[in-house]
Amino acid sequence: MIRLLYLSQASSALTKDQVQKILESSRRNNPALGLTGVLIHGGGVFMQVLEGPEQAVLRMYLKILEDKRHINCKIIYITPIDKRIFEGWSMGAIERDDVLGFDQIMELHHQRKEVVQAKVFTNAMHEFLDILKAEHG
Ligand SMILES: Cc1cc2nc3c(=O)[nH]c(=O)nc-3n(C[C@H](O)[C@H](O)[C@H](O)COP(=O)(O)O)c2cc1C
User: Fold this and answer.
1) Which of 36, 48, 58, 69 could tie 86 with a disulfide, CB 3.0–4.6 Å?
2) Residue range 2-136, CATH number
3) What local confidence, expressed as pLDDT, does residue 54 receive?
4) How far is the C-alpha of 108 from the C-alpha of 61, rounded, in Å?
5) How far apart are CA 36 and CA 90, in angstroms?
């Protein structure tokens, strides 16, 4: 399995309903594909973690790339995994600008650090999971 994290920009200011539509298709399609993850939206930016079988993750990423609701997709972290972080979340949702970890990841992205700091990403993802659990049980 792999875990992939990418950033993108919402192509326009998306309403809650429009983001909800994305989550609905994710939750409809992802379970059969063995995909889990989280979609964070805020401040005109998306950040999504996709985890699951390598081919399924990469195929879904290619499909998502074509989606006109966002632009400038950039993979910022991709790693082989034996264990999911987002087990049970066909697509968790976090809607806010001030997520911990989100800022750090944006910062790393802006700096385009050559050394990928795996720990920063995995720590941030565990923070996302804590937020999901706190907000949605
Ligand atoms: C930021 C973003 C994240 C998305 N994530 C997923 C996803 O995890 N799973 C999914 O099936 N579709 C996702 N989509 C939607 C796909 O691009 C596509 O519209 C959808 O899979 C089509 O589903 P359908 O063939 O069932 O209508 C995402 C779209 C955007 C803009």
Assistant:
1) 36
2) 3.30.70.100
3) 98
4) 21
5) 4
Q: Indicate the domain borders of the chain.
A: 2-136
Tell me the mean pLDDT in the region 13-37.
95
In this structure, the residue with its CA closest to atom 21 of ligand 1 is: 25
**How far is the centre of ligand 1, averaged over its atoms, from the C-alpha of 26 (Å)?**
5
Q: Which of 3, 67, 71 to mutate to test the pocket of ligand 1 (most atoms within 8 A of CB)?
A: 67
| Residue 115 Cα to ligand 1 middle (Å) | 30
Task: Summarize pLDDT for 117-133 with one digit per residue, the tens.
Answer: 788 888 889 999 999 99
Q: Residue 69 CA: which ligand 1 atom is closest?
A: 31
Q: Are 16 and 23 in contact (CB under 8 A)?
A: no
Which residue did the predictor score with more confidence, 101 or 21? 21
Q: How far is the CA of 108 from the centre of ligand 1 (A)?
A: 26
**16-45 b/e (C-beta count within 10 Å ≥ 16 → b):** eeebeebbeebeeebeebebbbbbbbbeeb
- How confident is the model over 38-55, as a mean pLDDT? 94
